[in-house]
Specification:
Elements (H helix, E strand, L loop, with lengths): L1 E4 L2 E4 L4 E7 L8 E7 L6 E7 L4 E3 L7 E5 L4 E6 L8 E8 L6 E2 L3 E6 L1
Parallel strand pairs: 2-11
Antiparallel strand pairs: 1-3, 3-8, 4-5, 4-9, 5-6, 7-8, 9-10, 9-11
């Protein structure tokens, strides 16, 4: 089970660090990912991190988002220079080579102007 946390209300220009804690080991996943769903849009991928710790970012997200993981089955998403349009629900997911993602509960990020 995956549980995202760390969202909240922040002013534009600020930073947040989101956490995704797993109740068990995440070593069974080929990669971990952060997605987000902003109002009026479909859920979109933000970044992934492989089991070896290699990050990858959607080009439009590169620069302000940093994904990382630690040895305690927690995956993080650091967001800098937050913009109003970053407002939305952020989800973590465990990815497999085959099969659907394992979704965690989302955490709401609200950026005020």
């Amino acid at each position: 089970q995956l549980q995202a946390s760390g969202g909240g209300l922040v002013q534009a220009g600020g930073s947040l660090r989101l956490s995704c804690a797993a109740s068990g080991s995440i070593s069974g996943f080929s990669a971990m990912a952060w997605y987000r769903q902003v109002p009026g849009k479909q859920r979109e991928l933000v970044a992934t991190i492989s089991s070896a710790g290699n990050p990858a970012y959607v080009p439009s997200m590169k620069g302000r988002f940093t994904i990382s993981r630690d040895a305690a089955n927690t995956v993080y998403l650091q967001i800098h220079s937050l913009r109003v349009e970053d407002t939305g629900v952020y989800y973590c997911a465990g990815l497999l080579v085959r099969g659907p993602p394992t979704w965690g509960q989302g955490t709401l990020v609200t950026v005020s102007s």
